[in-house]
Write a structure and sequence with these properties.
The protein is mainly β and 673 residues long. The chain has 2 helices and 40 strands. Strand 18 and strand 19 form a beta hairpin.
């Protein structure tokens, strides 16, 4: 798995539950401040020089339902905007970059390298995840191809901790009849020459449908208060093992599999000819990652480390299209088989007493077999990326600044498409990336950073070649898009809290956007430029017995055509943010509450017009209590009961044109651990 030290210079946790951040062994004790139950770390040894801090969340501290999906986990990540598109897929947006520009890594392997170049987090189980880390922006040249907007990484086994033996079981029941259950076990085993950790588990989720929010009605009669065709059933399992030798080398294997059946909500307020009436009778995904590393050891030139990961990602998606909102008469189908094989190699080495050199190599082959009523098509894409960065400790003291660090790095990416179905083969493509950054401390409590970077992204196979059941006109002539980004920020720590302020500007040229054709089908084309300028704020504060945390993003996002005509970018809220709080109440119970605000944003209607989606706030919360328990076999020591409410105000907020988010939902949950 990719080393956390390559990604984050500081780690902030902004959740009302107990969370922690990874700290390098070289961090000074006076550079770590514990704000119970929040642990915020500011390490002296910068490792992503010039970049904003990574946000690290412990999954066991999040207030999630039993058997959560990865999209539900993502919605808990500060400064990461998650929305549901018209295909029912969960997309992520960060700093104006859409989901194909944000890498999602499972145990170090990017699952966003594939047919669609993004991971549908709405069907992936999060049961295996123990930790999630989000790094914003172009923080490194080492993450592989097509990474422009950030990196989201989940881990099934901690790289540094030796966890205790544990068994956990969770069950939840929802007010609309849905339920979920999950179980997992962790077994550490000590040997003379090292330590082994084994984890395994499974989950089951059955959702009858999403509740209709207040004021939203289905065009067809419904008596249960649920959106038509939004049921979801899934089953998943995982297994992971990691062995670390006392001398430093390690080896790990992580596997997970998910299978689900679900419907997707059709757009409201549009004609039947413009809406999708789809169901997914089968969505299956299996991911396996084999990794190993040498650990840091002495070499003739200093000290170094080498890690190698091999990932296999296999999936099948079956889509059935219907004539109308009754979902009785089938009109078409689309089935797809996906196989992606990825190799990643990462290395670190010292350069004298003041420098470090880091390098990475990523090679991926993507295969997609498409089955349509008109016949079969086979697609294949090969992507390669090689990157390197060097970090220099310029000075420990430089006037008012201390711990001054400088980095410069570059990358070369290449891609080719040997098979393109029945479409003409596109030419081979290549591109370059570069980054420079600076970090320093102003006094003991303020960290400053700034950076400038440039990188490109290649079109995904689906972007260029898919017709999406005649919803899109394919465009094999798509060319790479290019991002130029600058950012600067400051992080300050004080007695009872921590605040970070970051400003950024992104310019994406040759951007791939969706347009509406005269026949009301869509097509993806390269527009001239997308510009995003914004400010991000994160903070955490303890006020007596109350823990508060929050994040807010304010941005201006627009596209500029070759004719200098300006327009609005899709699904880019002008203002978004979260405020969370937790406090103890009576009888040993805790009360948690959160407010999620989404400002005005725009969507592209079937007519080709920009439509403004109204701003609003969703309120949620829960009451929980933990008891000590005694079981005959001693498996469990504690039990937690929780009553939660999502969207307590039953507010109608939209992710996209005609697609409201779910209404009010109550959940009752019991966890044994």
């Amino acid at each position: 798995m990719m080393r956390l030290t390559l990604l984050c210079c500081t780690a902030l946790v902004f959740l009302p539950g107990t969370s922690s951040a990874q700290v390098r062994d070289t961090a000074r004790t006076d550079s770590v401040r514990i704000l119970s139950p929040i642990i915020a770390t500011t390490a002296r040894e910068f490792t992503a020089v010039g970049g904003a801090s990574a946000v690290v969340l412990r999954v066991d501290s999040l207030h999630l339902p039993a058997a959560p999906t990865l999209s539900e986990l993502m919605r808990e990540v500060p400064l990461l905007h998650v929305r549901t598109n018209s295909r029912g897929e969960a997309e992520i947006v960060a700093r104006g970059s859409e989901s194909r520009s944000v890498a999602v890594l499972l145990d170090g392997i990017p699952i966003t390298l594939g047919w669609d170049a993004r991971a549908d987090a709405s069907v992936l189980s999060a049961a295996a995840a123990t930790q999630i880390m989000f790094t914003r922006g172009l923080s490194s040249m080492l993450h592989g191809p097509n990474v422009l907007g950030g990196v989201l990484e989940t881990s099934s086994i901690s790289e540094h901790e030796q966890p205790p033996r544990s068994v956990e079981m969770t069950g939840s029941y929802e007010s609309k009849g849905g339920y979920g259950t999950s179980a997992s076990a962790t077994i550490p085993v000590a040997f003379d020459n090292g330590a082994l950790v084994l984890r395994a588990g499974g989950s089951l989720r059955d959702i009858r449908g999403f509740p209709l929010p207040d004021g939203v009605n289905e065009p067809v009669p419904t008596t249960d208060g649920l959106r038509v065709n939004t049921d979801h059933r899934s089953i998943s399992g995982f297994a992971a093992a990691r062995y670390r030798f006392t001398s430093g080398p390690w080896l790990s294997l992580a596997t997970s599999a998910t299978r689900s059946e679900r419907g997707i909500a059709a757009e409201l307020g549009v004609e039947d000819g413009d809406a999708r009436f789809w169901r997914y009778p089968n969505v299956a995904r299996t991911v396996a990652v084999l990794s190993g590393g040498t650990g840091f050891h002495g070499t003739p030139l200093g000290r170094g480390d080498l890690e190698v990961s091999l990932g296999y990602d296999e999936g099948r998606t079956e889509i059935v299209a219907y004539e109308d909102r009754t979902y009785e008469t089938q009109s078409s189908f689309e089935n797809g088989d996906d196989r992606t094989l990825t190799l990643r190699v990462l290395g670190d080495h010292t350069i004298g007493a003041r420098g470090d050199l880091r390098a990475a190599f990523t090679l991926s082959e993507i295969r997609h077999d498409e089955f349509l009523p008109a016949g079969e098509n086979r697609y294949r894409q090969q992507l390669m990326s090689i990157g390197g960065e060097t970090v220099w400790r310029v000075a420990e003291r430089a006037g008012p600044l201390s711990a001054l660090r400088f980095t410069v790095g570059g990358a070369f990416d290449a891609g080719r498409t040997p098979e393109a179905g029945d479409k003409p083969l596109p030419p081979d493509v290549d591109d370059w990336g570069a980054r420079a950054g600076l970090s320093a401390y102003a006094g003991e409590a303020v960290q400053l950073h700034m950076s400038a970077s440039r990188r490109g992204r290649f079109p995904a196979l689906r972007e260029a070649f898919s017709g999406a059941l005649d919803r899109f006109e394919p465009n094999p002539d798509l060319t790479p898009e290019h991002l130029t980004a600058i950012e600067a920020g400051a992080t300050t720590t004080f007695a009872n809290g921590q605040v970070q302020l970051v400003g950024f500007h992104h310019s994406l040229t040759d951007a791939i956007v969706r347009i509406t054709l005269p026949d009301r089908r869509f097509m993806r084309v390269n527009e001239n430029e997308l510009r995003t300028t914004g400010v991000e704020v994160l903070g955490a504060y303890r006020l007596g017995r109350v823990d508060l945390s929050g994040d807010v993003s304010v941005q201006s996002a627009e596209f500029i055509t070759p004719e200098l005509r300006q327009g609005h970018m899709e699904s880019q809220p002008e203002v978004s943010g979260n405020l969370r709080g937790r406090m103890p109440i009576v009888l040993g119970a805790d009360l948690s509450a959160n407010v999620e605000y989404t400002g005005r944003q725009y969507c592209l209607a079937a007519t080709g017009e920009d439509v403004a989606l109204h701003s609003g706030a969703r309120l949620g919360g829960d009451i929980s209590r933990v008891w000590a328990v005694r079981t005959g076999n001693g498996i469990f020591s504690r039990a937690e009961a929780r009553v939660a409410v999502d969207n307590a105000g039953d507010i109608a907020m939209y992710d996209q044109c005609g697609l409201p988010r779910p209404g009010r939902l109550l959940r009752f949950q019991l966890r044994l651990f």
